[in-house]
Amino acid sequence: MEQFNIKPIIPIEVGGFDISFTNSALFMSLAVVLSTLFLVLAMRKRSLIPGTMQSVAESIYEFVAGVVKENVGHEGKKFFPFIFTIFIFIAFGNMLGLLPYSFTFTSHVSAVGTIAIIALIINVVVGIRAKGWGWLHTFCPAGSPIIAVPILVPIEMISFLAKPFSLTVRLSANMTVGHVMLKVIAGFVVMLGLAGGVLPLLFDCAIVIFEIGIGLLQAYIFTVLSCIYLGEALHEH
After folding, report:
1. 202 in a domain, yes or no?
2. What pLDDT shows up at residue 195?
3. Domains contained in the chain, number
4. How far is CA 27 from CA 6, 48, 83, 163, 207, in A?
5. Distance between CA 123 and CA 10 in Å, rounded?
6. H or E element at residue 142
7. Is residue 75 situated within a structural domain?
8. 195-216 b/e (C-beta count within 10 Å ≥ 16 → b)
9. How far apart are CA 85 and CA 67, in angstroms?
10. Domain-located, residue 43
11. Backbone phi, psi, residue 13, to 5°
12. pLDDT band for position 81 (cuts 50, 70, 90)
């Protein structure tokens, strides 16, 4: 499990707090830099007949735009940059984690949970701006029996606060399990040697392809659920 250990690269301590630049921070930075570089290069020479990179970039854009429109509605257009950033950041993080000797920051609750909490805070702000303080009826729907309020409100609050938890656990658990499987099977390749390790090696290659699909799928699921929660903040009565 050492592949998931966060290790300091540049030790920094300020006022007794450890704010070292770690391998997790490095790969988060790489995800930002590489995704930005990809999009800039893909759209640098825009043409009516797009090349491969432009086609991929436009396809991602249209895909995420479709997810936002379907789950949030036309009001979701102004939140598109945030949702698009979430998808790209998580997708690149998942893909980088598949490279040898890399670090999968999306397998850590702290990294993914921060994104989920930011999404939750935005949902609260959007809900209050859209409905005023009437948004608080989310925790106590109109028409609820007075006698049920002391039970209903805590349940609704727990349900609401569980949203970022569900987003975080789903993504981090999938990334962790997939990489553990890769490491275990790779260990068999080393143990069995050149002759006996062919089958485990082929199986490991198949899992890598599977993990690419899982990584993109998890980025999609995280994005869809973020859109659904945002749509609830805007439209739920």
Report:
1. yes
2. 66
3. 1
4. 11, 35, 20, 26, 22
5. 35
6. none
7. yes
8. eebeebbeebeebeeebeebbe
9. 13
10. no
11. -135, 125
12. very high
Which residue stretches of 18-72 are H helix?
23-42, 52-72
| Dist. CA 12–CA 18, nearest whole Å | 6
For residue range 88-120, list pLDDT tens digits in order.
999 999 999 888 888 889 988 888 999 999 988
**205 phi and psi angles, rounded to 5 deg:** -65, -40
Dist CA 112 CA 86 (whole Å): 10
Residues 6 or more apart whose CB falls under 8 angstroms from that of 216 comprise 91, 94
Residues making up the chain, counted from first to last: 237
The CA distance from 234 to 223, in Å, is: 17
- Please count the other Cβ atoms lying within 10 Å of the Cβ belonging to residue 128: 14
Q: CA 88 → CA 62, 113, 122, 198, 211, distances in Å?
A: 13, 16, 18, 35, 17
In a domain? residue 26? no
Q: Which domain holds residue 179?
A: 64-235
pTM score, two decimals?
0.86
Dig out the tokens for 217 from the structure. Answer: 């799928």
Find, among 97, 94, 92, the residue nearest to 3 by Cα. Answer: 97
